Amino acid sequence: MALQDVCKWQVPDTQGLSPHLPEAGGWAVPQGCDPQTFLQIYGPRLAHGTTTLAFRFRHGVIAAADTRSSCGSYVACPASRKVIPVHRHLLGTTSGTSADCVTWYRVLQRELRLRELREGQLPSVAGTAKLLSTMMSRYRGLDLCVATALCGWDHSGPALFYVYSDGTCLQGDIFSVGSGSPYAYGVLDRSYHYDMTIQEAYTLARCAVAHATHRDAYSGGSVDLFHVQESGWEYVSRSDAYVLYMELQKAPGLEQEREPERKQEREPEQEQEQEAEVSQVCPGPATPQDAAGGGELFVEPEEVTAEDDRIRVKTEMI
Amino acid sequence: MASRYDRAITVFSPDGHLFQVEYAQEAVKKGSTAVGIRGTNIVVLGVEKKSVAKLQDERTVRKICALDDHVCMAFAGIVDNFAGLTADARVVINRARVECQSHKLTVEDPVTVEYITRFIATLKQKYTQSNGRRPFGISALIVGFDDDGIPRLYQTDPSGTYHAWKANAIGRSAKTVREFLEKNYTEEAISNDSEAIKLAIKALLEVVQSGGKNIELAIIRRDQPLKMFSAKEIELQVTEIEKEKEEAEKKKSKKST
Q1: Is residue A83 pLDDT above 90, yes or no?
Q2: Burial class of B254 by CB neighbour count within 10 A (0 to 12, 13 to 18, 19+)
Q3: What sign does the CA torsion over A90, A117, B97, B75 have?
Q4: pTM, full prediction
Q5: Pairwise CB contact (< 8 Å): B147 & A155
Q6: How many angstroms separate the CA of residue B222 from the nearest CA in chain A?
Q7: How far is C-alpha A115 from the chain's CA centre?
Q8: What mean pLDDT is reported for chain A?
Q9: Hey, is the C-beta of A130 within 8 angstroms of any chain B C-beta?
Q10: Catalytic annotation on A50?
Q11: Cβ neighbour number for residue B174 with a 10 Å cutoff
Q12: Which of B173, B180, B179 lies closest to B76 in space, CA to CA?
């Protein structure tokens, strides 16, 4: 190409990667320039900023996310889907560049399907996370941005892995990813325990994302909630974030309502009453004793969720 | 020097045979017998040990090899005089061992017995369809337990086909041993671990000269690693078998009188 010869641009070679994967090094950057810095300064502003979270507990894995796609200070889409199903027993929460996330999830779906046909069974969630992280680590340094939590159910039960596009692959019980994750972590760490009931888990997830959307500018819109169980994944609800947050604020004594029950079954905790004022909407106790007793307190949905019912009735399905 | 390698050795005959593969199967029939049995909770591999020369170190002649913690294989092919077809087995075993670990690294799960059998079979098939290469001259019996706790026994042959078996034998006198197994493989015979072991030894004793000294035995129990039997343990089993035989004879003679 004449212009290339005149300017003596060097197109980075593709190093013979698999023909089935997207081309790496597609950006032709000026000589002597590190691709990442170049793209940071001159590249297009890519969609970033979100709140997604996932945690695993006895009855499966919960995945929740907001729905705002922002592009700098411009909201590209107020109702996007950030939780992507991969197959019947696997979901991925996506954060980072939306385009990258969607593309890589489609590649992952194809690879998993091929393996299913070859081996007669799908790989475990651990294997899937490994596969995704090795695929993406080849493009390290090229400004790929995919931060995702793989939530699934396999032969080892509920499984949760965090995968980042530089190749990080971590296993854990709670992950929150995105610009709103610090706020979500605060709420999650407060009330998470492995033996939660399903309703408690739903409320916790909604609460965490709603609080994050309240404080983080790049998160908002609605709150999507998914649940992966032994029988597969289920799209539980989509609730407007603002409405949900207001409901949560207006629900006093969620702690106080549940206290009489708790006092029957465990030793009364003085702190709980004080905490009720500060974090009244957070279900589930956070003290170790309560966590230990969590197994016996299998709260029936009807008992716990007079508040939850109200919230569910009032939220809109978009 | 590409011309040296672009002539295939394994080509079709006019009547549709791959003679090289069939000759390889003949080579297998000259190897020492190996028998594999799939019990309910145990898998057993037994191999006829050729009597070693006086000056040869016995321990270097091993015909049962572990591929991973939960899978092992025995092979049959020409051992002694011909140009090392145990060498063929060494190549296959090495590739299989690497593949077991590679699978664990990429998929985070240990191989299933069926997967590694398929890998070995594919490898053998490749060598029947490549330039300048001859087929492997070995058949293999691959046993092990999968993650789901189900025992498995597979057999591969030089053509690259593989099948699952409840019990099988390969090598010299494989036919005799297989007939014995067909007669004596019953649900109750294999339900008990020790019965399954005895069945394998009995099957080998049919064709092996001079009894227990020339038998090599290995077992895998569910969730346990491969266990090779020492010569003493095999002798114990053989004496037990002979005792049972005598008692059965006595009962028979009592009945007839």
Answers
A1: yes
A2: exposed
A3: positive
A4: 0.72
A5: yes
A6: 18
A7: 25
A8: 76
A9: yes
A10: yes
A11: 20
A12: B173
Between CA A206 and CA A254 the distance in angstroms is 15
Task: Walk along chain B (257 residues) in steps of 10 and give the mean pLDDT of each run.
Answer: 62 88 88 90 88 72 83 70 61 92 89 93 91 86 90 92 94 91 88 90 86 85 88 89 90 81
Pairing between β-strand A74-77 and β-strand A69-71 as defined by DSSP bridges? antiparallel
* Alpha helices in chain A, H assignment, sequence order: 2-7, 35-42, 98-119, 125-137, 181-191, 198-215, 241-250, 254-265, 270-278, 288-293, 301-304, 306-314
A304 has pLDDT over 50: no
Side chain identity at residue B185, one-letter code: Y
Of A266 and B97, which is predicted with more confidence?
B97
Q: From the CA of B34, how many Å to the nearest CA of chain A?
A: 29
First to last CA, chain B: 80
Tokens of A126: 């651990």
DSSP 8-state assignment for residue B178: H
- Residue appearing with tokens 């299989």: B96
pLDDT of residue B129: 87
**Segment A193-197 mean pLDDT:** 93
The CA distance from B105 to A18, in Å, is 20
CB atoms within 10 A of CB A176: 28
Give the separation between CA A66 and CA A53, rounded to whole angstroms: 9
Other Cβ atoms closer than 10 A to A288: 9
Tell me the per-residue pLDDT of A2-36, one tens digit each, with 9 for 90 and over. Answer: 665 666 666 554 444 444 555 555 555 566 667 66
* Exposure letters A198-218 (e unless 16+ CB within 10 A, then b): bbbbbbbbbbbbbbbbbebeb
Residue A64: what pLDDT? Answer: 96
A vs B, Cβ pairs < 8 A, gives: 21
DSSP character for A143?
A: T
C-alpha angle with apex A254: A252 to A258, nearest 5 degrees? 140
**What is the DSSP annotation of B188-215?**
HHHHSHHHHHHHHHHHHHTT-TTGGGGE
φ and ψ of B27, to 5 deg = -60, -40
Q: Is A131 on the interface with B (CB under 8 A)?
A: yes
Q: How far apart are CA A219 and CA A241, in angstroms?
A: 9
Q: Which residue has the tokens 């067909």?
A: B182
Q: What is the mean pLDDT of residues A40-60?
A: 79
Q: Which of A50, A52, A94, A305 is catalytic?
A: A50
Q: Cα(B197)–Cα(B190) distance, rounded to whole angstroms?
A: 8
Cross-strand bridge partners of residue A229:
A232
* Burial environment of residue A34 by CB neighbours within 10 A (0 to 12, 13 to 18, 19 or more): exposed
What is the mean pLDDT of the segment spanning A101-114? 92
A134 and chain B: CB distance < 8 Å anywhere? Answer: yes
